[in-house]
Backbone:
């Protein structure tokens, strides 16, 4: 079994999965869509990836504000998470994702990635999942 990490955005979903021992997170892909509310293909692709990687749990980045309050994006993420749970039958854990996109940007800048916009959601999903995996080992 593996754990899947998701970074949900208005037009993309970054996807990462753990190794089978659940120590490390690896990026898988970025699911892109033309409009924010067009999610049918996104859900279908997530179902395919859940089966392909034998996923048993999903960790979904939860975009709290820096002052720990929940804004409008949190409501959209909760709704997305509920739909993912219903479609996959798997537990969905909301995980505080504050600063993961910033960390992903910095990491790519430091390693010389030029087309950062193309990869930031996948890297953010990796940071979300890795944070969760690390917390489970403590």
Residues:
């Amino acid at each position: 079994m593996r754990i899947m990490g998701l970074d949900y955005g208005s037009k993309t979903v970054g996807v990462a999965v753990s190794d089978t021992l659940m120590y490390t997170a690896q990026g898988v892909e970025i699911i892109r869509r033309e409009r924010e509310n067009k999610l049918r293909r996104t859900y279908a692709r997530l179902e395919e990836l859940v089966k392909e990687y034998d996923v048993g749990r999903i960790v979904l980045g939860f975009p709290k504000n820096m002052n720990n309050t929940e804004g409008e994006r949190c409501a959209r993420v909760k709704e997305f998470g509920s739909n993912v749970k219903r479609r996959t039958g798997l537990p969905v854990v909301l995980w505080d994702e504050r600063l993961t996109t910033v960390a992903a940007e910095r990491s790519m800048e430091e390693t010389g990635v030029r087309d950062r916009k193309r990869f930031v959601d996948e890297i953010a999903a990796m940071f979300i999942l890795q944070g969760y995996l690390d917390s489970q080992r403590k």
